[in-house]
Specification:
The protein has about 750 residues and is of the alpha/beta class. It is about 35% helix and about 15% strand.
Length: about 750
């Protein structure tokens, strides 16, 4: 029987792997760019490019000019342009690195196509790519092309008529060498256009400050008509407020810096923006972002946590992040869960880091590295990023006494870490190994006496930790989700403040029933998060969840909880035995005002599919509730719902509308998903209501609602649904009316 069980588990794992390989790629990926003002020069260039793409005789388009004119912005808008998306089955966007390689280029294409099958054979890869592109209409966007690329050789598209290419470059000669059919020169802005852009970005209020307008006119002259610099400087001066003396002093400092041309001048302007940050923590936080590639989006929650563990921030991380976004030193995604850094800004940040004390960065993310950098380079660095590479080994003997952060995540071919690897890293505070292939960690891990954060999540083969892990006295954050570690292996770390685990971590062979009952030993926990990675409808899942629930009730410092309650009664018992959480839900303050506690609750019997339904909405800043396989409208659920920002009602019976949960309780929702609720007839019943409803709801997703007839029934009150951005309707077969009269 044991052999059969092992065989079934092996087939299940193989099925998951094959499913991942066969998953169809999204038509478009990437951060949606900020809107371009209608009839602005950049808007015109985007529309020109779209017009060229519609022309069947034009296969290749070249967009060229010096750095900072807006080529990357144009490419980002083409990537998300509705008309462009309708022309092609898939859009592949590739940013070309300075030290690019043909294999690395091919791997980016293969990854985008969902074909993680690349090899070291260029011709073989080209054939794989050709066979895939042959099946679909494809647009390839190549940004920052710095040399001629033989596309025919690399992606095998000799006579393929179903693909088109748009390339962005600083060099017109590259456009000609790559045989573009048409060119778009992104010209610098005129003096009038430059000033208009500055005024728009800095704020209309400066028009009432004649002296500020005079300073602005002088500042834009230093920008050489480059939108990149105009935007950064405008946001920097905007941060100075209406203090004219600060504007005048800032302009004088900028003028003193400007003694170069070309890229040197660009970096000097950006250096001014960096120098204008009014505190060292803001500068430290900005430079830290350069550890990540400009191609990658950085998860805000992880970034804020790393800043805190490095000692840059205390409780002001969100404030600093907001400032960096406001002055355009960082870019944010549409849902604000991720940020990234512009390529030119990152180049400048890396340059500054090498000149600044205790800020030296060795950053080589996403470069396809199979071998680690020379040990001498490790010695000089305070922070190292080798994430998203193909490293297979690490150096044994290092001198890294001044290293504070080490990012090695998603090097899936990294299986063994040398015994002495960590021995010299006495100052290390952040260590990220998640998504690597490691099976165990060496004893030298226990020498990291200053370590604050250890990320081991998604190390699916990890079974062992050093026996002396108790030596990590300053460890605050530990993430072992998706590993084969058991809770008893970390039970000595009772001072942890943030613990993230999976339900399966309680089900390992080494874990007995008594050993499950030790969550309460982590008396300092402020955040506890548990992922459901096994079928929670199984009796073992129920038993473990109830044991953990009892233990959690004793944790007096717990203010953030992600947990699955098998039943409503299980949730009730938790609240009855934990006074602080009970008081939180008893308070009448609305969800958008009371942030003293954070929660992500799933209530009810569920399978893995149900658990994943709201994953795309899950955000640590949102309180979320997933109510699964429930019946009727429960008073406790109403109470929790009143503190909820994202609500998922899944496979529910006994309610014909969301209104039955009480309008007052759903006022704080930003996100709402209704899935498989076959008795829901309308979402909101406005009959007899006197106040607006769902004023701040942004996303509404409704799926498999067989009796849904309308979104809104009855009179519409002013202010209702005014912030709704997204509505998704799937398999609502009797839906006849989406919006009532007057809603649009």
């Amino acid at each position: 029987m044991a052999g059969k069980s092992k065989q079934v588990h092996g087939l299940w794992e193989e099925g998951k792997r094959i499913k991942a390989m066969l998953r169809l790629p999204m038509p478009v990926v990437g951060i949606r760019p900020a809107k371009i003002k209608y009839n602005s020069p950049l808007h015109k260039y985007v529309e020109d490019a779209v017009s060229f793409l519609k022309d069947p005789d034009i296969r290749r388009i070249g967009i060229w000019e010096i750095v900072g004119t807006g080529k990357t912005t144009i490419m980002e808008h083409l990537n998300h342009h509705e008309n462009v998306k309708n022309m092609f089955d898939i859009i592949i966007s590739v940013a070309i690195e300075k030290e690019w390689s043909e294999i690395g280029f091919q791997q980016q294409i293969l990854d985008r196509l969902g074909l993680n099958l690349g090899s070291a054979d260029i011709n073989k890869n080209a054939h794989i790519i050709f066979e895939e592109l042959e099946k679909k209409k494809c647009l390839i966007l190549l940004d920052d092309v710095c040399c001629t690329i033989e596309l025919e050789k690399i992606i095998g598209v000799h006579d393929l008529q179903t693909y088109k290419v748009v390339l962005g470059t600083r060099d017109l000669a590259i456009c000609k060498d790559m045989d573009v059919d048409d060119e778009i020169q992104v010209k610098k802005l005129s003096d009038v256009e430059a000033l208009d852009m500055f005024m728009e970005k800095a704020g209309e209020y400066i028009k009432n400050l004649p002296r500020a307008v005079q300073v602005a006119q002088l500042v834009v002259k230093e920008c050489g008509g480059l939108p990149l610099l105009i935007e950064k400087l405008a946001k920097t001066f905007k941060g100075m407020g209406g203090n004219i003396q600060r504007w005048t002093d800032g302009r004088r400092k900028l003028q003193d810096l400007m003694n170069e041309e070309g890229m040197g001048a660009v970096h000097q302007v950006l250096q001014f923006c960096y120098d204008s940050l009014d505190s060292n923590p803001k500068k430290d936080c900005f430079l830290y972002c350069a550890l990540h590639s400009e191609k990658c989006e950085i998860l805000v929650s992880c970034l804020l946590e790393c800043w805190r563990m490095e000692g840059f921030t205390d409780n002001d991380g969100h404030e600093i992040l907001g400032h960096l976004i406001n002055v355009s030193l960082l870019e944010t995604s549409g849902n604000k869960k991720k940020v990234k850094m512009n390529k030119v800004l990152r180049e400048m940040a890396l340059k500054i880091s090498h000149e600044r004390e205790n800020s030296k960065i060795l950053a080589m993310p996403c470069e396809g590295l199979k071998e680690p950098p020379n040990p001498k380079r490790w010695t000089q660095a305070n922070r190292i990023s080798l994430l998203d590479n193909e490293l297979q080994n690490l150096p044994e003997n290092l001198d890294c006494g001044n290293l504070f952060t080490l990012l090695l995540q998603r090097n899936k071919n990294l299986i063994v870490i040398p015994k002495l690897f960590f021995a010299s890293m006495c100052c290390l505070r952040v260590l990220d190994l998640h998504g690597t292939g490691i099976k165990s960690l060496p004893w030298s891990l226990c020498t990291l006496i200053d370590l604050r954060g250890l990320y081991l999540n998604s190390c699916t083969h990890l079974v062992g930790l050093p026996t002396d892990i108790v030596a990590l006295k300053k460890l605050e954050v530990l993430d072992i989700r998706g590993t084969k570690l058991s809770l008893c292996q970390i039970r000595t770390l009772t001072w942890l403040k943030f613990l993230r685990i999976s339900l399966s971590n309680f089900c390992m062979k080494s874990q007995t029933q008594n050993q499950t009952s030790n969550v309460s030993e982590f008396v300092s926990l402020e955040e506890f998060s548990i992922d459901i990675d096994i079928d929670s409808s199984h009796q073992q899942g129920y038993r473990i969840a109830n044991i953990i629930r009892k233990e959690l009730a004793t944790l007096e410092k717990l203010t953030s909880l992600k947990f699955w309650f098998p039943t409503v009664r299980c949730l009730y018992l938790f609240l009855m035995t934990n006074k602080a959480w009970k008081d939180f839900f008893d308070r009448t303050s609305p969800a958008w005002e009371d942030f003293s506690f954070r929660f992500q609750f799933a209530v009810g019997s569920q399978n893995l599919t149900c658990y994943q339904i709201l994953e795309s909405f899950d955000d640590p800043s949102y309180n979320s509730l997933k109510f699964i396989n429930g019946k009727g409208v429960n008073d406790l659920i109403r109470k929790v719902l009143a503190k909820t920002h994202a609500f998922g009602l899944i496979n529910h019976v006994g309610a014909s509308s969301l209104s039955e949960f009480d309008m007052e309780n759903i006022k704080g929702l930003f996100v709402c998903l209704i899935e498989g609720c076959n008795e829901i007839e309308t979402i909101i019943d406005g009959t007899g209501k006197t106040e607006s409803v769902l004023e701040i709801l942004q996303h509404l997703h409704i799926k498999n609602a067989s009796k849904l007839e309308s979104i809104w029934k009855g009179p519409v009150l002013a202010g209702s649904l005014t912030r709704l951005r997204t509505i998704v309707l799937l398999k609502c077969r009797v839906l006849t009316k989406i919006f009532s009269d007057g809603m649009i």
